[in-house]
Every structure is written in C-alpha cells, then in structure tokens.
Design a protein that fits this description.
heterodimer; A: 115 residues; mainly beta; 4-stranded antiparallel beta sheet; 52% strand; B: 115 residues; 7-stranded mixed beta sheet; 55% strand
Chain lengths: 115, 115
C-alpha cells in the first residue's frame, strides 16, 4: 500500500515570492507521482507528473517538481507566484505494477497568495 | 462542451433518503471513477469502471452502488443516506491502457449535505 504526506496544510505567501509545497510518499513498490490543483469550487486538474526519465518535471504555468528517490519526495516549486495560483494542491501516487491507475492522494496544501 | 459533467451540483436531503448522482464524460474515455472528498479536503477513491466493468471497489458501505450504463456514464446511487455521507463527490475519467500513467479529468463535483 502507498501513502502520501503533505505536511503543510496551508502556505501563505506574497505575490511574486517563491514557494515550495512539500510532498513525501511511502511505498514498497515503484510509483508514478502526480500533482493536481483544485481551484475554488472546481474539480481537480493535473498540474504535472513524473513517470520516468529526468527527475525534474515542469508544468506550462511555471511550476516544477523534482522526484527524489532517496528521500521519497516530490516537492512542488514555483520561483514567483501569482494571485491566480491561490488554490488547493494535491500530491498523489499510483502503483507502477498494476495495469490501471489507482491514485492515492495526500491531504492537500492550500496555497494562499496575497498582494 | 464540458468534458466531465455531474448532476446535480448541489444536493441537500434528509437522513434515510435515497439519492443518485449522475456523471457523463464526452472525452471518449473508457475508464471512470468516483471519489469522495470530506470536509478536510481529503480525497479518496471509491470506485472505478473500465468499459462498464468494475475494476476498483474500495471499502465503501454497500449503501453505495455505482452503475455504468455505457462507457460515457457512471452514476452513483446512495441508499439510506447518513450524516457521514455529507461530502463532495467527484467523478473523473481517463483513457485506459497507459498502465497507470494516464491523466484523470475531474468533474466539478456534487456537494451533498445530509440533514
């Protein structure tokens, strides 16, 4: 079984400041890693995912995440946040062995960007 | 032209009632999911169907019964509603065959309140 820990339930930050949202996972098998974002009153949208290859993955809106196998982490970073980045961010894992996807989510981190 | 739609958006009902939530996707996907998000934003998979066949069935009370009439639809029927069923229910879809690497597309959610 897998589990995901997002230690920060809420991260307040000023506009244009850098931010890091932490994600650690526990699994006895190899996993795929995902970050999903939930804007207020909406469903989740995929932000980025790590499948294989380069451990640094990027999204189209300036976020990046780095897979660190030794630390079992997949932290999400952005060098300069915008007000519009205010949302709930969920880290998730999926077992590589199964032929289908069963996402296990963390408890989410609320990013609050202030002017 | 909504990709994944859910009806109703809000549902307020009394304990003991039976209710259904409907989900439809027009993405041509063959796999659909139901998730429950509790008041603390924790998101957990309930069911998944691939080509109308149940492939994920988590530990969910048997008062919850999913039904997939075709690949584009996955409905959730809940009998004898309890206070603890109050939550946001999300439907999602994806294309099977990517061995866990696929992206899930989420609907906007159905906010269920049991009084």
């Amino acid at each position: 079984a897998q589990s995901v820990t997002q230690l920060d339930s809420q991260v307040p930050v000023f506009e244009e400041a850098p931010v890091e949202l932490r994600c650690n996972y526990s699994s006895s098998v190899s996993v795929y890693l995902f970050w999903y974002v939930q804007y207020p009153n909406q469903g989740l949208q995929l932000l980025l995912k790590y499948l294989s290859g380069s451990t640094l993955v990027e999204s189209i809106n300036g976020f990046e995440a780095e897979f660190n196998k030794s630390q079992t982490s997949f932290h999400l970073r952005k060098p300069s946040v915008h007000i519009s980045d205010t949302a709930e961010y969920f880290c998730a894992v999926s077992d590589r062995r199964t032929g289908f996807q069963k996402l296990v989510f963390g408890t989410g981190t609320r990013l609050l960007v202030s002017p | 032209d909504t990709a994944v739609s859910q009806t109703p958006k809000y549902l307020v009902t009394q304990m003991g009632n039976d209710k259904s939530i409907k989900c439809e996707q027009n993405l041509g996907h063959d796999t659909m999911y139901w998730y429950k998000q509790d008041s603390k934003k924790f998101l957990k998979i309930m069911f998944s169907y691939n080509n109308k066949e149940l492939i994920i069935n988590e530990t969910v009370p048997n008062r919850f019964s999913p039904k997939s009439p075709d690949k584009a639809h996955l409905n959730l029927h809940i009998n004898s509603l309890e206070l603890g069923d109050s939550a946001v229910y999300f439907c999602a879809s994806s294309q099977f065959g990517l061995a866990g690497r696929e992206t899930q597309y989420f609907g906007p959610g159905t906010r269920l309140l049991v009084l």
